[in-house]
């Protein structure tokens, strides 16, 4: 059976420490993407994750929510610790445990039109996995995880090893303004997008916060505005929400610009509440039609 859209990625256990409290919660790209897209009933979606036995209760809840989930065994789950000071921008991050990387021998029977790789750490998906999946369908990835390396529990910012080899097999790539500069050396979104395209990416999605986003397909730059949220509650998972909204629209037949607007509005609705996106397709359309447009690139 060939699914329309499949997300492959680890679900994390997140420990969030603030001066006021310590909270444990599930997280990760696979978690945020799956809950978001599951609300759109007219899509054949499946999740492939790899977690330790201790976190199977998270999978039970995903399945109770109607999200088809395939679990690959792992000795441990990914365990992030985020410690915040009085200033919320002051964060210390550690990885206290890592799950087993994904390997192609465990993914052979997964067939999809689009595979979205929910990468959290640089070694989650070896280049050969990306290459083999690209022979079966279109591969999508967020660059964030490829730029994180763990050494003795500490997280270090790095460039993407073997990026030139991997990017030629990736159809959709989402980067933000910092990630695009690390990958390409360019701070200009258009120059960065063009470089990533020249390296093989077919649709480059550059998110720029309140300045919206830019999508490049080798021929046109699509300038997507940002929609102003009514309030900012929780930005965690906004990038994942943008990407899955875009992929949902593309696999459903929408054009690039239409998919970009949908993705931007969907991430705006997500930031207004804690946890994964919990709206409807009608809510997203309403946001596009009624929300105030914030800064837009010239």
Automatic annotation (TrEMBL):
Superkingdom as given in the UniProt entry: Bacteria
Pfam family membership, one: PfkB
SUPFAM superfamilies: Ribokinase-like
Molecular function terms from GO: kinase activity
Carbohydrate kinase PfkB domain sequence ranges: 15-276
Signal peptide per UniProt: none
UniProtKB keywords: Kinase, Transferase
GO CC annotation terms, alphabetical: cytosol
Protein name in the entry: Ribokinase
